[in-house]
Write a structure and sequence with these properties.
The protein has six helices and two strands, in the order E-E-H-H-H-H-H-H. The mean pLDDT is 79.
């Protein structure tokens, strides 16, 4: 199943595949609240798209209801937010591809398209090296390089 995203950032449009579990949730949502899945998925009482303020309000409410507290951070630091979900998705996708032994240079354009980015560098911003990924890479490199680089003694 796919979601057709229209009028996204930069007036872009794309088809995004969804997992079957999300597809079931969306079907239930559409059956309960909407007359047609072809229209705006999250619309207000006037049939217009919901705002970012609406999304942030409900995201914050869900966090609070789940007992997840936002930590105190320095001014201008990013805290838990909807955009963090997108970042987490990108990083976990990147890590999974790495662990599956896929060529990341070939995979980044696919992830970039999936996320709706016009340029690969937009996706690369999400894919900072994390400690977990770094450890995986270091362990693999040690196995591959075993014996090639001699120990340096003082």
């Amino acid at each position: 199943a796919f979601i057709h995203i229209k009028n996204a950032k930069g007036n872009k449009e794309r088809l995004v595949p969804v997992h079957h579990s999300l597809n079931e949730i969306l079907k239930n949502y559409i059956n309960r609240l909407k007359s047609s899945p072809e229209e705006i998925l999250f619309e207000n009482m006037k049939g217009q798209p919901r705002s970012q303020v609406w999304a942030r309000y409900w995201f914050t409410k869900i966090l609070r209801d789940a007992g997840i507290e936002k930590p105190e951070l320095p001014k201008y630091s990013r805290n838990i937010c909807i955009h963090c979900l997108r970042h987490s998705f990108a990083v976990s996708s990147f890590r999974r591809q790495h662990l599956e032994g896929k060529d990341l240079y070939n995979e980044i354009p696919l992830l970039s398209t999936y996320m709706g980015h016009g340029q690969i560098y937009e996706t690369e911003k999400y894919l900072h090296m994390t400690a977990e990924i770094g450890e995986d890479i270091l362990e693999q490199m040690e196995l591959l390089n075993n014996g090639i680089f001699p120990e340096v003694s003082k």
